[in-house]
Amino acid sequence: MDSDRISVLKRRLDALRPLSRGALESLEAWYEVELTYTSNAIEGNTLTRQETALVLGQGITVRGKPLKDHLEAIDHQDAWRFVRELAQRGVPIVEYDIRQIHALVLGRSDREEAGRYSQRQRMILGSLAVLPSPAEVPALMGDFTRWLAAAPPDPATAGEAHYRLVAIHPFTDGNGRTARLLMNLILLQAGFPPVVITPEQRPDYVDALETRHVSGDAGPWQAFMTERLIEGLERYLEILEKEQGPAETGA
After folding, report:
1. Is the omega angle on the peptide bond into residue 18 within 30 degrees of 0, that is, cis?
2. Is residue 127 in a domain?
3. 17-47 residue pLDDT tens
4. CATH at residue 64
5. Torsion angle in degrees (nearest 10) through CA of 114, 116, 118, 123
6. Is residue 122 part of a domain?
7. What is the spatial distance between Cα 135 and Cα 249, in angstroms, rounded to a whole number?
8. How many domains does the chain have?
9. Is residue 3 domain-resident?
10. Model pLDDT, residue 244
11. Which residue has the higher pLDDT, 15 or 125?
């Protein structure tokens, strides 16, 4: 069963802790680029993985690529660093935190909308989902953050929080990036590595969200997120075990 596989992988990860400073720094640098590249690429950003690394690591402007794509990369880097800081504090996530994550996601690329709930009706291109009206958003976000404060920090909550935030779609732009960052904040709080959703996985990702939006069937979404969590754990362990050597684990 997938839950058993996750439990086994999590025990292997816990057996390797505390992680060495070198391993932590290497992983943090890798995830900063990988999460920025993949999350932005899902939304249409044209920077490649290597170009994203150059922009973030060396401040290089890539010839022929839009300025907005460069700004989005730096914005996501700032937002991810803020998420890591929140995870280290170990305090409950409040509504202000979500708005602050969004403010950083759009900090340079769309300053007027950064951190603000949308004042106009939103639609998701290619989707049949009917989104809440702007007047409903503040109350729905209040309900959402109260649910989040009472929910345990675990993978199930992380996936559910992602879906619920996207379903409210409170912002004019940046909802997906903010939802993925929130999901990974909860995973970090629970002692899991971040989940990476690649551009190649976008069709399955969008289909799973759409199925739940329209029919209410949560099965495809939960299955998709479980697969990504297992992938993330396996990759994280592969990197760590090369750095530190495998730990002994029970059957």
Report:
1. yes
2. yes
3. 898 888 888 899 999 999 999 999 999 999 9
4. 1.10.3290.10
5. 50
6. yes
7. 53
8. 1
9. no
10. 64
11. 15
Is 192 in contact with 10 (CB distance < 8 Å)? yes
Catalytic residues, which ones? 169
Residue-range definition of the domain harbouring residue 175? 12-244
Distance CA 37, CA 19 (A): 25
Mean of the per-residue pLDDT values of the chain:
93
- Is 190 within 8 Å of 154 (Cβ atoms)? yes
- Report yes or no: 100 and 82 within 8 Å, Cβ to Cβ: yes
> What DSSP assignment string belongs to 25-50?
HHHHHHHHHHHHHHHHHHTT----HH
Predicted pLDDT of residue 3:
84
Token pair of 211 as six digits: 């199925």
How many CB atoms neighbour CB 173 within 10 A?
17
Mean pLDDT for the stretch of residues 140-168: 97
What does the buried/exposed string (b/e) look like for 183-221 if buried means 16 or more CB atoms within 10 Å of the residue's CB? bbbbbbbbebbbbbbbbebeeebeebbbbbbeeeeeebb
Q: Taking residues 131-154, report their average pLDDT.
A: 96
On whether residue 223 sits in a domain, the answer given is yes
pLDDT over threshold 70, residue 249: no
Q: Is pLDDT at 165 greater than 90 in this prediction?
A: yes
